[in-house]
Amino acid sequence: MNEVLATIKARRSVRKFAPGEVSDEDLTAILDAGRWAPSGKNTQPWRFIVVRSPEKRQALAALVPQDRMIATAPVTIAVMYDRTAGYNGFKDAQAIGAAIENILLAVHSLGLAACWMGKIRNPAIEAVVEARDFEELAALIPLGRPGEVPTPPSRLSRDEIVRYT
Length: 165
Ligand SMILES: Cc1cc2nc3c(=O)[nH]c(=O)nc-3n(C[C@H](O)[C@H](O)[C@H](O)COP(=O)(O)O)c2cc1C
Description:
By secondary structure, this protein is an alpha+beta fold.
């Protein structure tokens, strides 16, 4: 199996972080992976807000307490949807999903860990990350050093999801 396929299969949602920082070099590579995602008409409707300061991380963690993920991750990326950049809500959402998956794969490829957090429709969170009026929070991605190796959750079988015609 080549490296890309191996990374796709081995990536997991990691919900426990070990102590340790994420280097600027790794963070740049991770953000660049998001930047190079495909988007309809190449509109690139994503914006990435990096939350790294202890004060902001604490404020965010209070609003999104699940498993203390944000509290313990050294970095959280807030993925924003820039409504003025997009052109079709459904297609823009697909593009943002592609950017998030690119980010998760880059994180895993660097030996780091992350989790896609979607339960975040809350204006208080948008205020903490200083979202602009025309931006909507699409996801939060806490990332850091892995503190667990999750058992892979099952997947539907090929027979259940693939049809040939
Ligand atoms: C749109 C979306 C929202 C998600 N929201 C959360 C979340 O709020 N909290 C969480 O722990 N995991 C969240 N996840 C991660 C999923 O639970 C996870 O991807 C799924 O269980 C499969 O596990 P895997 O990522 O390890 O393959 C989300 C994933 C997606 C795609």
